[in-house]
Specification:
The protein has 7 helices and 15 strands. It is an alpha/beta fold. It has one domain: 2-Layer Sandwich (D-Amino Acid Oxidase, Chain A, domain 2), CATH 3.30.9.10. Strands 3, 4, 5, 8, 9, 10, 11, 12 and 13 form a 9-stranded mixed β-sheet that branches. Bound molecules: flavin-adenine dinucleotide. The site of flavin-adenine dinucleotide has 38 residues, from α1, β8 and β13.
C-alpha cells in the first residue's frame, strides 16, 4: 500500500489527507501546527492561517478561465459540505443565506439573473429589491451558502482522519524534501503532498493581511458588502459558540501582526450601518477579540501540480489558497487525489476519483 505524507494540517492538508485516505492509502500528516480550540490560539501561530479565517463561502460569478476553475471547485466543496453537514451535524458547518451588497457592481454582478445564477449552480438565488438594500448600495442578492467555525471543523476533520487510521506527527521542517529521508512505521514515503499554506521559497507567494473582530453577537446570515472605495464590510457567523466575525481588511504584503483599534472601530461601525440587526436588543457589539491573519496568496493563483524532485521523488503541491482555502477545500482535495492517481494509477489502473465517494 503506498504511503503518502501530507505536510500541513490546515484546511488544505486535512481535506487532502482525508480524500487520499478514502482511496485506501496509508497517510501521515506532518505539521508544525494542528487544530486546537481557537480560544487558545494566539499570535505566535499567525503563520498558521486556518484558525484566523472566517470562514464563509461566497459564490463569485467567474469572468475568466482561472475563476471558472475556482468556481467549479467551490461547487464541489458546496456539495460535499452539504453531505458532511447532513451526516455530522456536529462538524461545525452551518447552512444559511449569503447576502451580497455592492456599491459599484461590475457587469458580472449586474448580469446575474436567476437564470444565469442557476447555470452557475447557485441555489436559492434572488436579486434583492431596491427597498431591501442598505443606504449607498446599488445592487444586492442572496443565495444558499455555508459557514464553518474553523477550529471546530478542522478538529472534526482531524478526528475523522485519526479514527480511520491516519497518523500524525508534529514537527517543523526546513525543506519538505527532508521528509523523504525519515523513517515512518507506515514505511518509506512514496509521495509527499505540500499543503504548507505558503509553499517553500516560491517567489510568487505573498501574504494578504486581514484584520477582523470576533464579537459574541449572533447573526442568522452571512453578509458581504463591497464598497465603492475597494474596501470590504462583512460578517461571518461561526456558530457552535464561536461568535461572529466582523471584517475585514485585505492588505497585500503587510506583515504587521498587531491589530489596530482604529480599524476595529471602523469595521464595527460600518457593519452596524449595513446590518443594524446584528446589534440585537442591547444595541451594541460585545467584542471578544481582535484577529490578524495572513492569507497565503500567490501571483497567478494557487499551485496545484505535481513535481518530480531530485532522485525521482514525487511532490504534489497544494498551496497558495489566499482568501479561499475553505471555499475550495474539497475541490482542491479532489485535485490532489486526481494527481496522485495520475502518478500511481499508470500501474494500478484506478479511475479518476470523485469527491462524493470520499469516506467521510
Ligand atoms: C482574516 C481572514 C479571513 C478569511 N476568511 C475566509 C473565508 O471566509 N473563507 C475562506 O474560504 N477562506 C478564508 N480565509 C482564507 C483561509 O483561512 C486560508 O485560505 C486557509 O486557511 C489556508 O489554509 P492552508 O491549509 O492552505 O494553510 P494553513 O492554514 O496556513 O496551514 C499550513 C499548515 O502547514 C504547516 N507548515 C507550514 N510550514 C511548515 C514547516 N516549515 N514545517 C512543518 N509544518 C509547516 C502549518 O503548521 C500548518 O499545519 C481567510 C483568511 C484570513 C486571514
Amino acid at each position: 500500500m503506498p504511503h503518502i505524507v501530507v505536510l500541513g494540517a490546515g484546511i488544505t492538508g486535512l481535506s487532502a489527507a482525508l480524500r487520499i485516505q478514502a482511496e485506501g492509502h496509508a497517510v501521515t500528516i506532518v505539521a508544525r501546527d494542528f487544530p486546537s480550540g481557537s480560544e487558545t490560539i494566539d499570535g505566535s501561530q499567525i503563520n498558521y492561517t486556518s484558525p484566523w479565517g472566517g470562514a464563509h463561502n461566497r459564490l463569485v460569478p467567474p469572468t475568466n478561465p482561472a475563476e471558472e476553475r475556482e468556481h467549479a471547485m467551490s461547487l464541489r466543496t458546496f456539495d460535499h459540505m452539504r453531505a458532511v453537514h447532513a451526516r455530522y451535524p456536529e462538524a461545525g458547518i452551518t447552512f444559511m443565506k449569503g447576502v451580497e451588497y455592492l456599491e459599484a457592481p461590475s457587469e458580472a454582478y449586474r448580469g446575474l439573473s436567476e437564470e444565469r445564477a442557476r447555470a452557475l449552480g447557485m441555489q436559492g438565488f434572488r436579486v434583492l429589491g431596491k427597498g431591501e438594500l442598505p443606504q449607498g448600495v446599488e445592487w444586492g442578492c442572496e443565495y444558499d451558502t455555508w459557514c464553518v467555525n474553523p477550529m471546530v471543523y478542522c478538529s472534526f476533520l482531524l478526528r475523522k482522519f485519526a479514527i480511520q487510521g491516519g497518523k500524525v506527527l508534529r514537527k517543523e521542517v526546513r525543506d519538505p524534501k527532508e521528509i523523504f529521508s525519515w523513517t515512518f512505521d507506515a514505511g518509506p514515503v512514496d509521495v509527499l503532498v505540500n499543503a504548507s499554506g505558503n509553499g517553500f521559497g516560491d517567489e510568487n507567494m505573498f501574504i494578504t493581511r486581514g484584520q477582523t473582530c470576533l464579537v459574541a453577537n449572533s447573526c442568522p446570515v452571512t453578509v458581504t458588502r463591497q464598497n465603492a472605495d475597494g474596501s470590504w464590510t462583512f460578517c461571518v457567523p461561526r456558530n457552535f459558540d464561536g461568535g461572529t466575525i466582523i471584517g475585514g481588511t485585505k492588505e497585500p504584503n503587510n506583515w504587521d501582526p498587531n491589530p489596530s483599534l482604529e480599524v476595529r472601530e471602523t469595521l464595527l461601525r460600518k457593519f452596524a450601518a449595513t446590518y443594524p440587526q446584528i446589534l440585537g436588543r442591547e444595541g451594541k457589539f460585545t467584542v471578544i477579540r481582535d484577529i490578524v491573519g495572513r492569507r497565503p496568496t500567490r501571483k497567478g493563483g494557487m499551485r496545484l501540480e505535481k513535481e518530480t524532485a531530485e532522485g525521482g521523488k514525487q511532490i504534489i503541491h497544494a498551496y497558495g489558497l489566499g482568501g479561499r482555502g475553505y471555499e475550495l477545500s474539497w475541490g482542491v482535495a479532489e485535485g490532489v487525489a486526481r494527481l496522485l492517481v495520475e502518478h500511481l494509477g499508470a500501474s494500478s489502473q484506478q479511475q479518476i476519483p470523485q469527491v462524493r465517494d470520499a469516506k467521510l
